[in-house]
Amino acid sequence: MDEGLIIDDNRQTADALQQMLDVLDLKARVAYGSSPAMSMLGSVVPRFICLDINMPGVDGTEVLAYLRREPRLMKVPVIVITSDDQPETRSRVMKGGATAMLIKPATIDLLENALRKAGILS
Length: 122
Known about the structure:
Layout: E1 4-7, H1 11-23, E2 28-31, H2 34-41, E3 49-51, H3 60-69, E4 78-82, H4 87-95, E5 100-103, H5 108-117
Parallel strand pairs: 1-2, 1-3, 3-4, 4-5
């Protein structure tokens, strides 16, 4: 799959991220929550993932843990985009294998920077 995947239960946030990625000439599918994302991840390997943390049911840290355990997904860059700006959250997601963490509302400049550092944009 030459597209990214946005995982966020907030439609407005997910759609805004998708629009920012479009401006950066990157395509991404959207999964509005962890359950639809887990279904998609059963059959696709995205080029990168933008992941929310605070979601009902399976939260983003559990999705991240799954991604890092699953051999075919463990190398996919994951950019966590969350409203949770606590140092312990940052520490937990970075130790959990996130490539980068941005605080909502993410700007296109910060997103572009994170994607460059992840090797998605040159």
